[in-house]
């Protein structure tokens, strides 16, 4: 049982490039979310999903896309990277709305 | 709107001292959940506790204890006999019981235990 996995751990992009951050969980959780963590701002929700085929926007969705074709996977796509997207990205999953979220190890992204 | 305030940005204590991390929240919901997470220097987020709004019993887990007071909208976290391994950033978070399952985080408290 690996829990929540994320790849890559580190990534450097140039402005305008696109990429996909991968997230997978093996706990059969319905709920999955993407957060970004910036200094002094805690974690902010980017997008979330309540099940396969269902996604919705969080607090800071601009510049990001998600899809949920399977229960296990929830990739986050950066369409055209900007320096403002330099951050640490965390994927999380939970069994149900009332339960705790389990977080992946994070992806540190730098956009130059 | 939900809001979580962790007014203590940084705290330093000498090892073996007790330390309390404050968390004050705002919500209009009657049913909600509160959480504490630990983020050690390695960067991962570790779940510590979940508390629902109907359960105001304090909880103790080893050296950790939590004091939930609905009357003051607070959910404080105390570490007794602190150890160097407790050095981390601690986040308090709030989650609604319906609709958008957004977890609203506080900005965190950086705790440093001085050996």
What's the tally of helices of chain A?
A: 0
The major beta sheet of chain A can be summarized as:
7 strands, mixed
Coarse structural class of chain A: mainly beta
Task: Provide the residue-averaged pLDDT of chain B.
Answer: 92
The amount of beta strand of chain B, in percent, is over 45%
Descriptive tags:
heterodimer, A: 112 residues, mainly beta, seven-stranded mixed β-sheet, four-stranded antiparallel β-sheet, 0% helix, globular, B: 115 residues, 12 strands
What's this model, at a glance?
The complex is a heterodimer of chains A (112) and B (115). In chain A, 0% of the residues lie in helices and 50% in strands.
Give your account of this protein's structure.
The complex is a heterodimer of chains A (112) and B (115). With 112 residues, chain A is mainly beta. Chain A has strands at 4-7, 10-13, 19-25, 31-37, 43-51, 54-57, 64-66, 76-78, 87-94, 102-103, 107-111. In chain A, the strands form two sheets. In chain A, strands 2, 4, 5, 6, 9, 10 and 11 form a seven-stranded mixed β-sheet that branches. Chain A has a four-stranded antiparallel β-sheet with strand order 1-3-8-7, with no helix packed on it. In chain A, strand 9 and strand 10 form a beta hairpin. The radius of gyration of chain A is 13 Å and the shape is globular. Helices cover 0% and strands 54% of the residues of chain B. In chain B, strands 2, 5, 6, 10, 11 and 12 form a six-stranded mixed β-sheet that branches. A four-stranded antiparallel β-sheet of chain B has the order 3-9-8-7, with no helix packed on it. In chain B, a hairpin with a 4-residue loop joins strand 8 and strand 9. Chain B is globular, with a radius of gyration of 14 Å. The N and C termini of chain B lie far apart (41 Å). The model of chain B has no long low-confidence stretch (mean pLDDT 92). The chains are: A mainly beta (112), B mainly beta (115).
